[in-house]
Amino acid sequence: MLETEELKKVFKGKTAVEGASLYLDKGESVGLLGPNGAGKSTTISMISTLLKPTSGDVRLNGKSIIKNPSEMRRILGVVPQEIALYGELTAYENLKFFGRIYGLSGKALEGAIQRSLELVGLAERQKEIVKTYSGGMKRRINIAAAMMHEPEIIIMDEPTVGIDPQSRSHILEMVRQLNHEKGLTVLYTSHYMEEVERLCDRVYIMDHGKIIASGTKEELKSILSSEETVWIELDRPYPAFFKDLQSFKVIKQAVETEKGIKLILPKGSRILGEVFQASERHQVEIINVNVQKPSLEDVFLHLTGRKLRD
Amino acid sequence: MKSVFLLQWQRFRRAPVMMLSFLIMTIIFVALLAGNNPAERPAILAYADDSLPESEAEDWVASLNKAEEFNFQLMSEKDVREAVAAGDAPLALRLMDGNYRIVLAADDMGRFVLEAFLNRKYREELRFQQVEQQIAGSDIRTEVAGLMEEPPLQVTTTTLEGTEEFQYDNQLQLLFGMTLFFSVYTIMFSLMKIVEEKKYGTWNRLILSPVGKWEIYLGHLAYSFAIGYFQIVTIFILFKYAFHFDVGDRFGAILLIIACYTFAIVALSMLVMGLVSRPQQLQAVVPIIATGMAMIGGAFWPIELVNSNMLLAISKILPITYGLDALKGVAIYDRSWQELSEPISILLLIGVVCMGIGINLMERRTY
């Protein structure tokens, strides 16, 4: 349905995206994963026709949309990362305006407003001024505004940034419904691994402007099929202990966080004894040790050498 | 375009305070500074120094008061100096033998107007006195007055610059100057919504809709034009009918000039938005542009009193200069359409150039 070919964007001599090729089949839910500054927003800006690529192409049903973006815009809904609403107006007035600019009027407009409000669960509070809403409610209206013209493809750029867990869960469930029940094609960008794992059939991983891996969740995890993850929970960071662990040849990757250390190493490596010896040398208090199957987060760590939220 | 235009009004209705404050501030400033009695002349305290006998000082004051531009009041030097020192009078006149000085406690823009008037009157009076000394017994003043009433020869001089003798009307200067000055704020702040839309992402929503980009711009520009035009016209109507300011009989011409001026300021605002892309920066830049333009363009004091060639040269590229010139041309000098066509054409030219450059600068980033 939608594909990009070798997309490249250069801003003032700096390459933001290079050689990004991806595709979306009809009714598919695809995740675009990467840390801040990976080039996700630039990529979706080019796909959604907001930004002209320096080179490469975006095709909708085989036709390039670079020179003629109108067909793409007609069937596309975009949920931007920022709250793109008029704060001084009510939710109802915002949706009415966004419906009008898509040519809706009369009963069709009213129907679209109420349908979108029901979808995001804010029909009861439609007459309230948007700037008085909580962060989560604003995010939901942000999604409703993109749904007014019943798009076939929806691009969501980190739609859950900065909101409470309850609103986040509501939004994720809503996206899942749109994809599973209404057959909407979804391109979902996030730096929350668990969201992408929950919502998306396929995943593209971006870093430093390039797509470094792609496939279904299982395919990506199989990259680490011969590895396992050891999570060592600590009471506080111990830099010397971490440095010591990094020197172990068997450890492929080690990442230190506030709560502990994550190690990626070949399956069946008998390393725990050496880890405990090192902890005694450095007088480290280990709270918990957990050997896990690799997650997408671990795949990302393996591919980029850093955590997703770095 | 209609949806975008109506949206701006809807947003204005929800948050009207800032825009209305410019309208109210204009009314307060003009009403306070110009007063609401058109017959009232500014009072100037005067005293004679030792070089001028009391009777001659009285003659000078009577002569100056004949012009009906200021109301000179002769008092003792002590009283006058006390009044100026206490701030009761912003300035005063010291009469000397064949000369004068202006006494100031602080710089006052009224000084330029008073100085221009006194220069003219003293030159005239001293010339009369010289003639009277040379032709004894001749009533030269009556003769000249008669000749001025019925001139033996009429000469009409037309120059390319169309320069007439400078006439000062304090009320109209304040009304036109302050109104055009505050309208710059209204228009620029209203158009700032484009920059805000780009910052908060609603602009991208509009771009992705079937509404054309030119329609989005036109919706915003039409709103800014309408609100700026409405503000200026409302103030002019208010002062013409409620405060009885004499803006002349050609109100249609004034409406046309306001439209051209508003267009030029809307276009200038687009240029500024193209150069300065952040709302916070614009908040700082707009007052600098508005005040600078008003000072150099003659909104605070008549441009005819400015002597600096550099400032006069800068004023030639400012729309406010031509707006004021055209408005005074109608209300004070009763200029013909042919004469008015020059400032009006320049306003339109400034508008077209600024609009073209402004939109181009704003469009550098996107499709």
Summarize the structure.
With 310 residues, chain A is of the alpha/beta class. In chain A, 35% of the residues lie in helices and 28% in strands. With 367 residues, chain B is mainly alpha-helical.
Q: What strand order characterises the main sheet of chain B?
A: 2-1-3-4
- State mean pLDDT of chain B (0 to 100 scale): 84
Helical fraction of chain B equals 55-70%
Please report the distance between the alpha carbons of the first and last residues of chain B.
19 Å
In quaternary terms, these chains amount to: heterodimer
Helix-strand layout with pairing:
The complex is a heterodimer of chains A (310) and B (367).
Chain A: E1 2-11, E2 14-24, E3 29-33, H1 40-47, E4 55-60, E5 63-64, H2 70-75, E6 76-79, H3 91-100, H4 106-120, H5 135-147, E7 153-157, H6 165-180, E8 185-190, H7 193-199, E9 202-207, E10 210-216, H8 217-222, E11 227-234, H9 239-246, E12 253-256, E13 260-266, H10 272-281, E14 286-292, H11 296-304
Parallel strand pairs in A: 3-8, 3-9, 6-7, 7-8
Antiparallel strand pairs in A: 1-2, 1-4, 4-5, 9-10, 11-13, 11-14, 12-13
Chain B: H1 2-14, H2 17-34, E1 43-48, H3 54-66, E2 71-74, H4 77-86, E3 91-96, E4 99-104, H5 110-134, H6 140-149, H7 170-200, H8 202-208, H9 213-242, H10 251-275, H11 279-297, H12 309-315, H13 319-331, H14 337-362
Parallel strand pairs in B: 1-2, 1-3
Antiparallel strand pairs in B: 3-4
Helix pairs in contact in B: 1-9, 2-7, 2-9, 7-9, 7-10, 7-11, 7-13, 9-10, 10-13, 10-14, 11-13, 13-14
